Structures are given as structure tokens and as C-alpha cells.
Amino acid sequence: MADLPVSVTMGSYIFHIDANNAFLSRSAAYRVNVLGEKTDLRLLPSVVSGDQEKRHGIVLAKSISAKKYGIKTGEAILTAKQKCPGLIVIPPDYGLYVTASEALMGKLKQYTDRVIQYSIDEAWAVFDGCEKLYGQGQMVNFACELKDKIKEELGFTVNIGISTNFLLAKMAGEFSKPDKVHTLFPEEIERKMWPLAVSELFFVGKATAEKLHRLGIHTIGELALADEEMIKAHLKIPGEIIQGYARGEDLQPYLFTHEANKGYGNSLTAPVDIVTKEYAQHVMLSLCETVGMRLRNDRVKISVVSVHITDYEFRYNNKQMQLLTATDVTEEIYRAASQVFEKLWDGRTPVRQIGVHTSRVENNTGRQYNLFDLQKYDRLEALNRTVDKIREKHGEDAVFRAGFLKSNVSHMSGGLDRERRGGVTLGIDME
Fold this sequence. Notes:
Distance between the termini: 27 Å
Number of domains: 3
Radius of gyration: 24 Å
Order of helices and strands: EHEEHHEHEEHEHEHHHHEHEEHEH
Strand content: 15-25%
CATH topology of the largest domain: Alpha-Beta Plaits
CATH architecture of the largest domain: 2-Layer Sandwich
Number of strands: 12
Strand order of the largest sheet: 5-6-1-7-8
């Protein structure tokens, strides 16, 4: 990923490029262009959905035709089928999505080295010093040509928003879809952005929109002109941020200032309720495998391990443990997680989800040994790193613990499927 800019120069144009219905579009394009299918799912009521049998049965992406039935991203697939009985449902193909994402970023880098990837299907591209060479009209023409090249060469459509800062470019890219180019320059804010519903503003989620509605604020323009002290009193610092966005202020530093990872964790929603200690231990060990690998990859150690569980009635509970010394060894993280789980679970109540999280991250500078763990720790640390290298070279399934031979739990799981772990998702969640 390119270095994130602190500022842009005078005369710069910023493009926000966002793949339209990315998951569905890419799956549909692959089926038509590679597999030779005659039916284009983009033209029919269709969705991409997780596995209903594994409790991931929600709509991940939808076609325009499906949207006309009132189907929404994130809703249960059973609800979506009730709205549209003939709905076509296909599984996600995250490997394909990552490949398409890499192709899109590669195409953008053919035109500028200042490409900032925001998620698996969107990015900004900065074109410096263009004001004197190209007018706004010519940059719009160039964006249209780029959009058409992406469609022709990669097989999916994008929206491109153009402005002189990151926020306005993104907002422009969210205007009418698909396969469109829009501008949103500072002088266009009042006309193009202020009449929009406040829920359309970047960083404003459902809960925030409801708070604003209770204050009598329904449009972006009303938020921009609202009393600053009132907004701050009800929404604190996030309120200041979104009011600045409503006025067209840039996303920085809030978007582009990413602190070092303050914690590493994973969770798993089990395909069937967890009712035995053995099953729970397999789940936690698989989670600790991925957490430990991430710690070692980032060359950090942690000294706090926490576990959360959600039972079959969606009741949530968590506890944590302070370690004597910081570690990146999977076995030590798992041992701590098991001890915490023992205190959390009554041994009877069915568990739906288990999560393992680590915190108090330190640079991997060494370890305070005691007389009894020196030899054991050195051996485990060396073994972990050897296993990491083998998995990196030959795949995650090249090495796994014997305990998983007869288990229905993946030996490395949690959070994202292995294909999805290769994607990029940088986002902000204020809800």
C-alpha cells in the first residue's frame, strides 16, 4: 500500500474509485467470462450470501434487481427469500474477490503511484499538479476513460468520484450508481451534498442518524449549519467530526492516522452450539493459532488474554487474565485462554460464539525468564516460528496439530475465512 498522504498539493485532483456491487459483480463476471455461463446474475434478482447451515446466512451483496424487491445488505437470507421467492443465491468466493481487488489496484497504479486502498473494493487515487495542465472537464473525461477501461479489461464496473479532497471525492462516488462519474468540488457542496439525507454522510451510521433526527436534523445541510455546541453536547468528538464532514472538510487526520494495533483477536460462531469442553477447547486452540501467527508476523508480544462467550440466548460475558511475561507463543496464549474459559462457562449452557482477544501489545524485544520456563519457552518459540515458515511456503494446511484430525473445527479459524485474510479492509466504526 502506498504511503498515506498528510496533505495534497494545490492543483491536485483526487479520484475515489469504488467497484459497483463488488462481490456480486465479480462473481457474475467470472461465471460469464471464465466459466462461460450464459446467464448474467447482475441482470437478475440475485445475492451473495454466507452458508445458512453455518449461521452465516446473510446478504453480503445484491443485484440492482434484488434491490428493487427491498432486499438489503446484511439482512437474513430467509427474509430476503420471502421478499423475492425466485431469488438466486450464490456463495461468496473471497479468493476471487482478492484477486480482482489486486487487479483493480494494479490498474490504478498504471496512472499514479499515489493509490490509497481503503477496502477490498475501493481506493483513492491522487493526481498531482493537474490544475494548470487539465481543467475540470478534461479530468472528468479522463475519469470516464478510466472507468471504461476497468470495465473492458477487468470485467466489472466502478463509480468514480472527483474532487480536491478525499471526503468530497468519496461522497461524489456515492452518488447515483452504477458505472458513473460524478464531481463534488467545494463550490458544489450546497447544491449537490447538502440536500442529501444525513444518513448518506460518510461516518454516519444508523444510530448516529437517529440521534441527529431527534435533534431535528435530517439533511447534511442542516447538520452543517447546526449549532456547534449542541452537536458537541449530544455527540461529543464524533459529532465535531461529522459536522466538519458536512461542511466539506477533509477526512484527515481521522481516516489516515492509523495507530499501531492495540490488540489481536479472533472469534468463531460455531455451526452447532458448543456443549462440551472438548469442542470449546478445539475452538479456542484454532483461534489462538491465528492470533499467535499474527503476533509473530508483526513482531510483537502481548501480556493480557481475554475470552468472551455468547450463549444460545445471545447473552454475552467476558473475562481476562494478566500474564507474568509477554508472549507470542500459541501454546501460552491457549493455556491462558483455557483458564479464563473455565471461569466463564458453567459447563452446561450451550455456547454460540467464542472469542479470544489479546492486549497490552509490546515490541518483540525479549522476555523476562524465570528459572523454570527458559528451556521450554525457547523450544516452543522456535517451533512456532518454524511452523509459521512452513505454512507461509506451503499453505496453512501443511502443518496442523494431531488433535484436529478427528475434529470438525478448522485448525486455524476465526474472524475471516482463510481466503478473506488476504484482503484489505481499513474502516472506521463509530457506532
